[in-house]
């Protein structure tokens, strides 16, 4: 019985779609089918039929169609501009309103006829109480399909996918305004795909997928509020301060940080990794390889590097160890170089490691299974001074920039020999940095070249290997450059003449020149709105880039102690105050500077809280 009913329904559906049935007989059958039912069942079915297709609606549809046909017959012999003017005088905003009204009438008539046919077929096969339930299910199905597929856009209706394509070019404010137009537009303006794309476009959760968050609109709002709080805390110097101190009496050799990880190497041969988000992480203690661990005395750590997945350390005896930031413990990769490691670089976004010992260069990377392999080895004409891996290249096609004396080289594993990018006799390279599309390096000019404007910074394109701009005019040597972290068109550098300079690479002009450190600038880093610089005197300064004003500065007086500043938290809580300001006067040794300071944060032993 069910198969016969389904076959009959399909046959009637095909007839409706192909248009073989006339619309007027359908209206008559719809009106007579409910009138010919005898007794109480006929009244019940008439009541149910009125829910989906009332006689007043049918009359109104027929009247509208008659008016449209009459207007079309009278306007056939008239010019087009007369019909447009007549439609405007009648109060219609578009000449296409006739076609739109006909389409709406046809859909409504088709909807009523289909529901009546379904109800008539179900009445003959099942009891009356099941007819009402099946009618409601079919009505709801057709209504949902119409709501999903048709989105009203002024005088027309568009499919949902096409409307979503239009809405993706709107901003947050514009989407909020569109959500107030109608219920259909509100559903469209709050679609998760729109807010997911907007969230990734602004730099939040770039590695996430649409299914990772139940509401991307709320996620974007939280990310924006967090970024606004961090920016405000940076400007007002509000945050938590932590001192990362490993063991007393050990000299700090090198420090590297990335995201929430901080890696430090010491003269004792120890390597310590901190995860500032999980202070009790088991990966904090990294064990050296068996060769370095069994050597007495243990070799010093010369270089350390860390990114989001791996941490690397180079020792004085030429050993290089690599650990996983998730597991820690024993090294996952180890190799021995013939001489002392002069430079070490780790890609910030992929598992690629570059090391240089003398004039020998070695590049290692992890394959798809996680096993580390040597990608290439090369030898330069002179001793390597500095190396850096170009970000955004991935582990399959890494690219490295190297400096050796007066020359700058590009190392590509797909090429047989390193490619010379720049080389001028008597002009040594003093600093190096690279972005995903450019490489910048400072050149020291001596002798007759000093009459050409002093020391310069050259910027080359990685795509063409040609110089794009040359900036700088300073008598002092450029000591540091930051190109990868700032805006794409800005370059920030530090100099021995105590100044921090900002250059616009589009025009080659200087944007700002800040007097920063009286012992010279040793490190510099910038983002969209601020500059952080460090000097030889131990001073850390934070500058506002647009105004060129110093926001605040802090002096690190304690050698061998790493200060960690977290501006996403409130520094007014008791746990975030430095130990020097929380003395309890009970400890006898003075290494932690527990001296008797009369400050409001002191905790006196045996004292009572005052109210």
Structure characterization notes:
It is built from 13 helices and 32 strands. The N and C termini lie far apart (86 Å).
Short summary of the structure?
The chain contains 13 helices and 32 strands. With 611 residues, the protein is α+β, with helices and mostly antiparallel strands.
Keywords:
611 residues, alpha+beta, four-stranded antiparallel sheet, 13 helices, elongated, WD40_repeat_dom_sf, F-box_dom, F-box-like_dom_sf
Number of strands: 32
Radius of gyration: 37 Å
Helix count from the secondary structure assignment: 13
Sheet with most strands: strand arrangement = 4-5-6-7
Distance between the termini: 86 Å
| Net shape | elongated
Helix percentage: 25-40%
User: How can the largest sheet be summarized?
Assistant: 4 strands, antiparallel
Oligomer: single chain
Q: Which residues form runs of ≥5 with pLDDT under 50?
A: 20-66, 68-76, 127-131, 582-611
How much of the sequence is in beta strands? 25-35%
**What's the overall average pLDDT, rounded?**
76
User: Which structural class fits the helix and strand makeup?
Assistant: alpha+beta
Protein name: F-box domain-containing protein
Pfam families: F-box-like (PF12937)
Domain F-box: 152-198
Region (Disordered): 20-51
Task: Walk me through the topology.
Blueprint: H1 2-18, H2 23-35, H3 39-52, H4 55-75, H5 80-89, H6 97-125, H7 128-149, E1 151-153, E2 156-158, H8 160-167, H9 172-178, H10 183-189, H11 192-201, H12 216-236, E3 240-244, E4 252-258, E5 261-266, E6 271-275, E7 285-286, H13 290-293, E8 301-306, E9 310-315, E10 319-324, E11 333-336, E12 343-346, E13 352-357, E14 360-366, E15 372-379, E16 386-389, E17 400-404, E18 407-411, E19 419-423, E20 429-434, E21 438-443, E22 455-461, E23 467-474, E24 478-482, E25 490-495, E26 499-504, E27 509-515, E28 521-526, E29 530-535, E30 539-544, E31 549-555, E32 562-566
